[in-house]
Amino acid sequence: MSTLSKTSPVNPAAAQPPTPEQLIALIRAIRDQIVVPEGVPAPASLRRRLAHVHPDFVNATINAAGVSEPVQSALGRTDEELRQDVDGTARMTAVIDELHALEKVIVDSVVVQRQRIGLAALQTYQICRQLARDERHAARLAPHIAEMKRLNRFGRRRNKPAEPQPAVQRPNVQ
Question: How far apart (Å, rounded) are the C-alpha atoms in residues 136 and 26?
Fold first, then answer.
């Protein structure tokens, strides 16, 4: 059985994982390197459809542009430039997949941290309750225990007393 060691890509020599602030700075640095091309001058409804043209149709049009100099001239782009765009766009889907995986890891990490914090809080509450049985600790812990009890939504629910319904008066019918 082999053991894998995890090292931080931000600072491989560091023993501590990066702080949230360091991760934010890294993400912003990456975001700043991404070039967003100029948009298509078309109505929004058409732009949505343009983003979903079938790949086989796109390849056929690139092939047609490759055999016709006037088509390339009208487009202002060669078939090779179009192929590079298609290839680059396809490779960016791998980037999107990695970003989704990164998001999942971060969300899972935060959930586990919240669980650990919640467990520590509930354990603290129970320890304080047990210590408060001893008169040496009772006076000091009593106000804290009362506040924790008031704020604890994890434990049993307390039913609110039902408000009395106003009596409905019926008109006398004679």
Answer: 51
Rounded Cα distance, 15 and 34, in Å: 30
Tell me the C-alpha distance between 81 and 145, whole Å. 70
Q: What are the backbone dihedrals phi and psi of residue 105, each rounded to the nearest 5 degrees, phi first?
A: -65, -45
How many whole angstroms separate alpha carbon 148 and alpha carbon 151? 5
Confidence at 40, pLDDT banded by 50, 70, 90 = confident
Q: For residue 173, name the pLDDT band (cuts at 50, 70, 90).
A: low
Residue carrying structure tokens 């092939």: 63
